Release factor glutamine methyltransferase
Amino acid sequence: MTRIEWIRWAVNELKQSEVQTPILDAEVLMAHLLKVERIQLHMYPELEVDQRTGEEFAELIQRRKQQCPVAYLTEEQEFMGLSFRVTPAVLIPRPDTEILVEAILKWVKNHQKKDLLLADIGTGSGAIAISLAHFEPELQIIATDISQEALEIARNNAKQQQVDHQITFLFGDMIEPIKAQGKKLDAIVSNPPYITQEEMKSLPLSVIGYEPKMALDGGTDGLAPYRIILEEALELLKPGALLAFEMGWKQGEALQILMEQAGLENVRILKDLAGKDRTVIGFKKNWQS
C-alpha cells in the first residue's frame, strides 16, 4: 500500500473510535515511522510503504484507537520549540505550561543578577527546567522528582538539549531534597498535581488511562501540593525571590489567598491562551526590582 492509502485507512479506523483529530494523528504517526516531516507525506503520497513499516503503523493506529496519546506512541513531545522524550512515566508537557516558563524567563531577563539559582519542583520530563536552561545559559537549576524513572527521562532530555551541565537532578518528594542542599534560592517554580479528586473521576481515558496519576491528583480540592510547598518554600528563598506555579483554571483566587497568607507579596495571576487563569506568581518580601 502507498502512503496515502495507509493514511486513508488509518483515518477511517480512528474516526470509528471517535478520535478527535484522525487526520493529524495518522499523519504524525506515519511521518514518525518513516522519519520524515509531515509535508513529505503530501509531497510524495504515492510512495509505497514497506511491509514492516505498514505493520508497525497498523499497530500504532490500534493503540491510538484505544485512546493512547500520540506523544506516548511516538515518545516525543514539542515544548517551547524543543523536542522532549516522553513515556507514561511522565506527564505530557502542555502548551499552557509555556505561560509559566515565559513568565520565569521575563523575570530572569529583568533581574540584575546573573548567577541565579532556581528550583523546579516535580520536574517530570524536565520540560520546564530544560527550557529555562536552554533560553538562559547562565541559569543554574535544581530539579526534583519523586519518580526515579521520570528523573532518568529528564536527565536524558537535558543531555539531548545540551543543558545537563546547568541542571542538578535530585530524587525526593517535593521540596525535601532541596532542604538537604542547604542553599538559598532565587526562585522556585512548579507545575504540581492540581486535579481535584472529583475532577479525576471525569478525566478522559487518554489522560487517566495513560498519564501518571501521581502527576495529576492534587487531593480533595487540588491544592494539597501547593500547601506542602508553601509551608517550607519561604525558608529556602532569598529575600525578594520569586515563587511561580501553574494551576487549574478554577484555582486562581484560592491559590492567590494561600500565597498571600504564606507571606508572599505582589501576587498576581496570569492567563493562558484561552484567557483562563493558569499561572500565579508572587515574591518573598524585601524584593528589589
